[in-house]
Amino acid sequence: MATQTKYIDLKTAIPGPKSKPILERLEKATPRAVGIYAPLIVDRAHGSLLTDVDGNTFIDLTGGVGVLNVGHTHDFVKKALHEQVDRFLHTDFTNLPYESYVRLAERLNAKFPGGGPATSIFFNSGAEAVENAVKIARSYTGRKGILSFERAFHGRTLMAMTLTSKVHPYKAGMGPYAPEVYRAPYPYPYRCEFSGGEPNHVCNEKCYANIEKALMLQIAPEDLAAVIVEPVQGEGGFVVPPQSFLPWLRKFTEKHDILLIVDEVQTGFGRTGTFFATEQAGIRPDLLTMAKSIADGVPLSGVMGRPEVMNGPGDSQIGGTYVGNPLATAAGNAVLDVFEQENLLEQAKRQGEHLISRLKAMQQKNPLIGDVRGLGAMVAIELVRNPKTKEPADEETNRVLQTMIQRGVLMLKSGIYGNVIRFLAPLNTPLDMLDEALDILERTLAEVGGR
């Protein structure tokens, strides 16, 4: 039976009759590694709404996995792309440069956390940005070691996959991995393994001490080129560390003359309520990686950093054929125009406050919600079978998400147990649209939780 609300408009069951045969073709034409999450075929999308080939319209809270902070097909971005298509599509910037690349670099450099001069270089994907940040760090320091954290996600290419801590599904059977990569614990307030009932600050101090211990047991600090860290862990479960964590880590790296790489691939471009999440820590990193929402879905990523560090590699040591392509840099400049003209940072803060308020109210009524956490609009709930034991409710999470698809809301999970539901709605999503999705989520959680 057709279901219609203010925004959601379901005309068929999911998948619909037009989606089914395409999904069957997809299964035959692509390998299982592609891994389809939602059983539908997209036809068009705008803002925070997505319509499939059967005419079903969904509220999209996936945001292209954090790529669409300004929304699907924003008018500014569409206009910039159409104009660029009419001019030229490719030259290879290092051979025949163009102004849009330079302008985008200048505008982003002005946003470097902590202030001071910065330079930027562009690539295609977040993984490429991470790979090249490591190359830059090693070239500048002359050292080889890289330290990353438990539950980290930095990409799927060799170095990025090695830095990534989540084994399934990203690393299992994919070794051997890149050498000279080491790992330390990352603070997880909801599941602090160092807590014995002490106040949070005691747990934090124990965690920081264990980070130093983990490092000392694996590599001499003078052999470490860089530490790479997510200000808020993304794929690891939207884990928000204590406010003291990044300042402590900055002091630690400075003490040992180690570079600090902040991976803002998912946290950047307003997701946490500031343009870069690092701003809220009041520190200046040495290098910063960015991607996802940088160009509203056109493949683009970058590394930004202190000029002396960025100049570590020699002429032509860093680059690639398609990196910083003219379509992407045109879209990137349009995205910055959206931020400037639509005050998206304030919208991100309002969205985050609204989400936290509603989700905490749900938590009071439903023990399936073990934790509500977030920074800005980077918000998540962690589902557990028992609020005391915190046993991960992974199967229940899957049921919730699949039911939500059938009811017209698209959401994603994360976390090493697969029990965290994350919110990645465009930052300009109307609050009444969020409420429509949240009403459905509340009903679905109650049903799955048996309440």
TrEMBL record:
Domain of life: Bacteria
Pathway: Amino-acid degradation; 4-aminobutanoate degradation
One protein family per Pfam: Aminotran_3
One MF annotation (Gene Ontology) recorded for this entry: pyridoxal phosphate binding
Top class in the EC scheme: transferase
Documented EC number(s): 2.6.1.19, 2.6.1.22
Catalyzed reactions: (S)-3-amino-2-methylpropanoate + 2-oxoglutarate = 2-methyl-3-oxopropanoate + L-glutamate; 4-aminobutanoate + 2-oxoglutarate = succinate semialdehyde + L-glutamate
Family, per entry: Belongs to the class-III pyridoxal-phosphate-dependent aminotransferase family.
PANTHER family from the UniProt entry: AMINOTRANSFERASE CLASS III (PTHR11986)
Protein's name according to its UniProt entry: (S)-3-amino-2-methylpropionate transaminase
